[in-house]
Amino acid sequence: MAIIMDGNGRWARARGLPRVMGHRAGIKSVRAAVEQAREVGIGVLTLYAFSVENWKRPSDEVGTLMRLLNEYLRRELLNLMKNEIRLNVLGDFQGLPEQVQGHLSQVMAKTRDNKKMLLNLALNYGGRSEILNAAKQVAEQVKEGKLKLSNLDELTFSRFLYTNGQPDPDLLIRTSGEQRISNFLLWQISYAELYLTPKLWPDFGKGDLMEALRDYQRRERRFGA
Ligand code: IPE
Ligand code: IPE
Ligand code: MG
After folding, report:
1. Per-residue pLDDT tens for 149-178?
2. Contacts with 31 (C-beta within 8 Å, 6 or more apart), sequence order
3. Residue 219's pLDDT is what?
4. 34-83 residue pLDDT tens
5. Number of other residues whose CB lies within 10 A of the CB of residue 52
6. Candidates 11, 29, 48, 51: which one to mutate for ligand 2, based on the most atoms within 8 Å of Cβ?
7. Catalytic: 54?
8. How many CA within 13 A on the CB side of residue 215?
9. Helix (H/G/I), strand (E/B), else coil: 122
């Protein structure tokens, strides 16, 4: 399951609060989604937390988002261990602030052997750059003679993506009523079921996640057949 967590800013504006307060409130929904996904046995949960495009926001908002991320990682480690959740990052890791990289590395190392659920945080993530980056690595390997172009199929190509070896999401949720993908998991969502809800991310609770799953269960997936 993958989620585009959107609407924090609008949630805050509707209350006359600064956008930052919306991001803070959004963390509660992150906790709820992680807990509930783990509870019902979702294998992989991928949360879109910061896109490559989000650097275009005012620097104080970007700074706050990075601070909140650090805070989340510090506070959540015990819970991740207790619930046997492994943390992983999708995106351009090196392009994140050094302090954030440090915190992420620590949590990833500590949770490495947890097997109940994989929690992907998409950070400094862009779908097109992910595919471009994979294409460059493939070209390198072909040049070095490690890969034959005639052997390159979809499965082989997908190993060069950030999601290397992971199953594609079956369900993609987007909150806040926007009806777009915003450069998220372009390769991986080719056959994902979409669930769009007008609820703003800070208002999206465990019950809403269950409603999305129930909706998903009613879908008939044909995969073109
Ligand atoms: C989603 O909420 C959080 C991030 C993109 C980090 P937004 O900040 O995009 O909130 P809106 O869309 O402006 O309401
Ligand atoms: C998508 O939301 C990115 C994340 C949720 C991290 P945005 O709010 O950045 O996307 P747009 O601007 O509505 O496309
Ligand atoms: Mg938004």
Report:
1. 999 999 999 999 999 999 999 999 999 999
2. 76, 79
3. 98
4. 999 999 999 999 999 999 999 999 999 999 999 999 999 999 999 999 99
5. 18
6. 51
7. yes
8. 14
9. strand
Give the dihedral sign, CA 175/169/27/51: negative
The greatest distance separating any two alpha carbons of the chain, rounded to the nearest whole angstrom, comes to 59
Buried b (16+ CB within 10 A) or exposed e, 73-94: beebbeebeebebbbbbbbbee
Q: How far apart are CA 108 and CA 87, in angstroms?
A: 5
> Is the C-beta atom of 91 inside 6 A of ligand 1?
no
Pairing state between β 171-174 and 2-4:
parallel
- What's the pTM value of the predicted model, to 2 decimals? 0.98
pLDDT tens figures, 83-110: 999 999 999 999 999 999 999 999 999 9
Ligand with smallest separation from the Cα of 9: 1
Determine the residue of 5, 10, 54 to mutate for testing ligand 2's pocket, defined as the one with the most ligand atoms within 8 A of the Cβ atom.
54
Q: Which residue ranges form the domains of the chain, and what is each CATH number?
A: 2-126+169-217 (3.40.1180.10)
Task: Answer yes or no: is the C-beta of 176 below 6 A from any ligand 1 atom.
Answer: yes
